[in-house]
Amino acid sequence: MRRTTAAVFGTLTGTALLLAAKFGADAAALGKGAAGADQAAAQAGGELAPGAEAPAAPGSGRSSTAPGRGGAGGAGKGARPGGGGAANGLKDGLFRGKASVNPYGPIQVTIRVAGGRITGVAATHATSPARTLQVNRRAIPLLRQETLKAQSAQIDAVSGATYTSRSFAASLQSALAAARA
Amino acid sequence: MHHIEHVMGTAVSIEIADLLPRATLTGLVEQTCAWLHEVDRRFSTYRDDSEITRLDRGELAPEECSADTRAVLAACEDLRRRTDGYFDARATGRLDPSGYVKGWSVEVASRRLARAGALNHCINAGGDVRSRGRPEPGRAWRIGIRHPWEPDKLAWVVTGTDLAVATSGTYERGHHVIDPHSGEPARDLCSVTVTGPDLAIADAYATAALAMGRDGLPWLAGLAASGYESAAVADDGSAYRSDGLPVAPVDEPAEPAAARP
Fold this sequence. Notes:
The complex is a heterodimer of chains A (181) and B (261). Chain A is of the alpha+beta class and 181 residues long. Chain A has helices spanning 13-22, 32-35, 168-180, and strands spanning 2-3, 8-9, 93-96, 100-102, 105-114, 117-127, 144-146, 157-159. The longest helix of chain A is centred in the last third of the chain and has 13 residues, at 168-180. Chain A is elongated and about 75 Å long. Chain B has helices at 22-43, 51-56, 67-82, 98-115, 199-212, 216-223; strands at residues 2-7, 10-16, 121-125, 128-132, 141-146, 154-160, 162-169, 189-196, 229-234, 239-241. Chain B has an eight-stranded antiparallel β-sheet with strand order 1-2-3-4-7-8-9-10. A two-stranded antiparallel ribbon of chain B has the order 5-6. Helices cover 32% and strands 23% of the residues of chain B. At the A-B interface, strand 7, strand 8 and helix 3 of A face strand 1, strand 2, strand 4, strand 5 and strand 6 of B. Strand 7 (144-146) of chain A pairs antiparallel with strand 10 of chain B.
């Protein structure tokens, strides 16, 4: 996998989740996705201290924690979510979390700790071929996650996966036509 | 006037809402159907004598093809680049531009209707919808996006007066979208809808995102800058949409598709 070079500081919603998961915010509130966080960390230039790795982001595809736009909160730029200073038992250095897959793709977070405090957070998106496009380079726009609804409503047409002329959707469309005739 | 035509392997619904003389409406519907059948003849991969089949077999050189065919092939190539290869008219190893052709033919049909004075119409080609104008004064077209597992239910309703809505999914014909990079069927996402100004492009984008799997979600988010909004459902039931998706307010409480006041 290639990796985009631009790190995103403090603006990424995933970052907030990661920090919350690590530093004692109510992990249960993160949903079941966080429970599967992989504690294994990749070596980061030899600076990784065992036991101090940042946990991976919600690891499974079924994460319910994927935030929508605007959920970034104030976790960036050395914020201290959920705890203070040395009480966190943080060792100084640069620590890189294991690349993990969240609903928006693989992401890898690096934190810098100085004086027991997080002084920097960076997230890079590991890229597969799909993300060599411009769209993921800077702003990392995200889709908002919603609860899947199963609703009924007055409509004029149905958009769906291409159906054969015998399929249900075709008959639904015909029924609409009949109902409106 | 509402007409359903079976063409291009699916049911195409043509609804014209303009108050025009009946003979005029009938003529417009007939012209639209004739065009769609002509496209089917020229672009079908199921017909031995279509331009596409002959081109694929090497019996026809690209420069011998009609202007429409050359335009379609050029558009497919452009979309292949814009989707990082995930929309590929040759994903199956054979030339098959039908993922573009259906949307394009409906887009052309819609433009022709508008030019002929039918400014208010909605064409639904097997789930890919192009709407213009209004179904009735004071109301925009409302297009439901099918729920992937509950065929009689909708996941979203979008609305507009000049809107294309294309959906690609795995629930009707199975895992038929191939990731051209791996050669494997697309997984992870079971339904991707793209809305925007051009049905052919929306359709290609939806197909590409489905082929990308979860990588398609951030990719879709990036399309909004160019006027294409999106909604997607993953295999695990998680649902996503872009902020600018023109969703219609949902009727609360959700009643069966019955009379609204």
